[in-house]
Protein backbone atom coordinates (compact mmCIF):
# COMPACT_ATOMS: atom_id res chain seq x y z
CA UNK A 1 0.00 0.00 0.00
CA UNK A 2 1.03 3.58 -0.58
CA UNK A 3 -0.59 6.93 0.06
CA UNK A 4 0.48 8.19 -3.37
CA UNK A 5 -2.50 8.29 -5.76
CA UNK A 6 -0.30 7.46 -8.76
CA UNK A 7 1.21 4.43 -6.96
CA UNK A 8 -1.55 3.08 -4.70
CA UNK A 9 -0.06 -0.39 -4.23
CA UNK A 10 3.57 0.68 -4.24
CA UNK A 11 6.43 -1.04 -2.54
CA UNK A 12 9.64 0.77 -1.67
CA UNK A 13 11.13 -0.64 -4.89
CA UNK A 14 8.26 0.94 -6.82
CA UNK A 15 9.01 4.31 -5.21
CA UNK A 16 12.68 3.92 -6.12
CA UNK A 17 11.75 2.99 -9.70
CA UNK A 18 9.52 6.05 -9.98
CA UNK A 19 12.33 8.33 -8.74
CA UNK A 20 15.58 6.81 -10.05
CA UNK A 21 17.52 10.06 -9.71
CA UNK A 22 17.37 9.54 -5.94
CA UNK A 23 17.38 5.76 -5.67
CA UNK A 24 20.83 5.18 -7.13
CA UNK A 25 22.71 7.57 -4.78
CA UNK A 26 20.67 6.33 -1.81
CA UNK A 27 21.52 2.68 -2.51
CA UNK A 28 25.19 3.48 -3.17
CA UNK A 29 25.34 5.28 0.17
CA UNK A 30 23.50 2.40 1.89
CA UNK A 31 25.97 -0.10 0.45
CA UNK A 32 28.99 1.91 1.64
CA UNK A 33 27.47 2.51 5.07
CA UNK A 34 25.99 -0.91 5.76
CA UNK A 35 28.44 -3.20 3.96
CA UNK A 36 31.62 -1.16 3.50
CA UNK A 37 34.56 -0.72 5.85
CA UNK A 38 33.35 0.07 9.36
CA UNK A 39 34.27 -0.40 13.01
CA UNK A 40 30.97 -2.31 13.28
CA UNK A 41 30.20 -5.72 11.86
CA UNK A 42 27.49 -5.97 9.21
CA UNK A 43 25.24 -7.58 11.81
CA UNK A 44 25.84 -4.79 14.33
CA UNK A 45 24.96 -2.22 11.66
CA UNK A 46 21.72 -4.06 10.86
CA UNK A 47 20.98 -4.22 14.59
CA UNK A 48 21.52 -0.45 14.88
CA UNK A 49 19.22 0.08 11.87
CA UNK A 50 16.55 -2.07 13.52
CA UNK A 51 16.95 -0.22 16.82
CA UNK A 52 16.53 3.20 15.17
CA UNK A 53 13.57 1.98 13.12
CA UNK A 54 11.97 0.52 16.26
CA UNK A 55 12.36 3.78 18.16
CA UNK A 56 10.74 5.53 15.19
CA UNK A 57 7.99 2.88 15.03
CA UNK A 58 8.70 2.24 11.34
CA UNK A 59 7.35 -1.27 10.98
CA UNK A 60 8.63 -1.71 7.42
CA UNK A 61 12.27 -1.00 8.27
CA UNK A 62 12.07 -2.66 11.69
CA UNK A 63 10.78 -5.86 10.14
CA UNK A 64 13.16 -6.04 7.19
CA UNK A 65 16.35 -4.98 8.97
CA UNK A 66 15.47 -7.03 12.04
CA UNK A 67 15.26 -10.10 9.81
CA UNK A 68 18.64 -9.26 8.26
CA UNK A 69 20.15 -8.78 11.74
CA UNK A 70 18.82 -12.26 12.61
CA UNK A 71 20.55 -13.69 9.54
CA UNK A 72 23.77 -12.22 10.92
CA UNK A 73 23.16 -14.08 14.20
CA UNK A 74 21.38 -11.58 16.43
CA UNK A 75 18.44 -12.76 18.50
CA UNK A 76 14.95 -11.76 17.37
CA UNK A 77 14.31 -10.40 20.88
CA UNK A 78 17.50 -8.35 21.14
CA UNK A 79 16.01 -5.07 19.90
CA UNK A 80 13.19 -5.37 22.42
CA UNK A 81 15.80 -5.92 25.13
CA UNK A 82 17.64 -2.79 23.96
CA UNK A 83 14.44 -0.76 23.90
CA UNK A 84 13.55 -1.92 27.39
CA UNK A 85 16.99 -1.46 29.01
CA UNK A 86 20.27 -1.12 27.16
CA UNK A 87 22.27 -1.95 30.28
CA UNK A 88 20.68 -5.37 30.76
CA UNK A 89 20.45 -6.22 27.03
CA UNK A 90 22.44 -9.23 25.88
CA UNK A 91 25.13 -7.29 24.02
CA UNK A 92 28.83 -6.83 24.77
CA UNK A 93 29.54 -4.02 27.23
CA UNK A 94 31.55 -2.30 24.51
CA UNK A 95 28.36 -1.78 22.46
CA UNK A 96 26.29 -0.27 25.28
CA UNK A 97 27.61 3.31 24.95
CA UNK A 98 26.98 3.07 21.19
CA UNK A 99 23.33 2.21 21.76
CA UNK A 100 22.95 4.89 24.44
CA UNK A 101 24.41 7.39 21.99
CA UNK A 102 22.12 6.29 19.16
CA UNK A 103 19.06 6.38 21.40
CA UNK A 104 19.89 9.89 22.56
CA UNK A 105 20.85 11.07 19.08
CA UNK A 106 17.57 9.75 17.71
CA UNK A 107 15.29 11.12 20.45
CA UNK A 108 17.05 14.28 21.61
CA UNK A 109 19.88 15.16 19.20
CA UNK A 110 20.45 18.62 20.62
CA UNK A 111 21.32 17.06 23.97
CA UNK A 112 24.38 15.14 22.77
CA UNK A 113 27.30 16.10 24.98
CA UNK A 114 31.01 15.46 25.18
CA UNK A 115 30.36 12.79 27.82
CA UNK A 116 28.37 10.76 25.27
CA UNK A 117 31.34 10.70 22.90
CA UNK A 118 33.80 10.14 25.76
CA UNK A 119 31.84 7.04 26.87
CA UNK A 120 32.16 5.56 23.38
CA UNK A 121 35.88 6.30 23.21
CA UNK A 122 36.43 4.95 26.75
CA UNK A 123 34.78 1.68 25.70
CA UNK A 124 37.55 1.21 23.14
CA UNK A 125 35.93 2.61 20.00
CA UNK A 126 37.58 5.22 17.81
CA UNK A 127 36.12 8.41 16.37
CA UNK A 128 35.20 6.57 13.17
CA UNK A 129 32.75 4.51 15.25
CA UNK A 130 31.09 7.69 16.48
CA UNK A 131 30.73 8.96 12.92
CA UNK A 132 29.45 5.60 11.63
CA UNK A 133 26.92 5.30 14.46
CA UNK A 134 25.66 8.80 13.70
CA UNK A 135 25.47 8.10 9.97
CA UNK A 136 23.51 4.87 10.48
CA UNK A 137 21.13 6.66 12.83
CA UNK A 138 20.69 9.55 10.40
CA UNK A 139 20.30 7.33 7.34
CA UNK A 140 17.60 5.23 8.96
CA UNK A 141 15.77 8.33 10.09
CA UNK A 142 15.75 9.39 6.43
CA UNK A 143 14.51 5.99 5.27
CA UNK A 144 11.95 5.68 8.08
CA UNK A 145 10.50 9.05 7.17
CA UNK A 146 10.38 8.24 3.47
CA UNK A 147 8.65 4.92 4.11
CA UNK A 148 6.19 6.35 6.63
CA UNK A 149 5.70 9.55 4.63
CA UNK A 150 4.40 7.70 1.57
CA UNK A 151 2.64 4.94 3.50
CA UNK A 152 4.75 1.90 2.59
CA UNK A 153 3.86 -1.15 4.68
CA UNK A 154 5.78 -4.41 5.04
CA UNK A 155 4.72 -7.09 2.59
CA UNK A 156 5.36 -10.31 4.45
CA UNK A 157 4.91 -12.33 1.23
CA UNK A 158 8.08 -10.89 -0.29
CA UNK A 159 9.96 -10.13 2.91
CA UNK A 160 11.84 -13.44 3.04
CA UNK A 161 13.13 -13.13 -0.52
CA UNK A 162 14.21 -9.50 -0.19
CA UNK A 163 15.85 -10.10 3.18
CA UNK A 164 17.75 -13.10 1.89
CA UNK A 165 18.84 -11.19 -1.21
CA UNK A 166 20.05 -8.15 0.77
CA UNK A 167 21.78 -10.39 3.30
CA UNK A 168 23.70 -12.23 0.59
CA UNK A 169 24.24 -9.45 -1.95
CA UNK A 170 24.03 -6.14 -0.07
CA UNK A 171 22.23 -2.95 -0.95
CA UNK A 172 23.53 -2.38 -4.46
CA UNK A 173 21.62 -5.47 -5.53
CA UNK A 174 18.48 -3.35 -5.25
CA UNK A 175 19.76 -1.30 -8.18
CA UNK A 176 19.72 -4.47 -10.31
CA UNK A 177 15.99 -4.74 -9.66
CA UNK A 178 15.55 -1.08 -10.56
CA UNK A 179 17.34 -1.53 -13.88
CA UNK A 180 14.85 -4.18 -15.01
TrEMBL record:
Alphabetized InterPro entries for the sequence: AhpD-like, AhpD_core, CMD-like, Uncharacterised_peroxidase-rel
Pfam families cross-referenced by the UniProt entry: CMD
Keywords: Oxidoreductase, Peroxidase
Coiled-coil features, chain-numbered ranges: none
GO molecular function: peroxiredoxin activity
Keyword Oxidoreductase: yes
Record flagged with keyword ATP-binding: no
SUPFAM superfamilies per UniProt: AhpD-like
Occurrences of domain Carboxymuconolactone decarboxylase-like (ranges): 20-83
Lineage: superkingdom: Bacteria
Name assigned to this protein: Peroxidase
Protein's organism: Fischerella thermalis CCMEE 5330
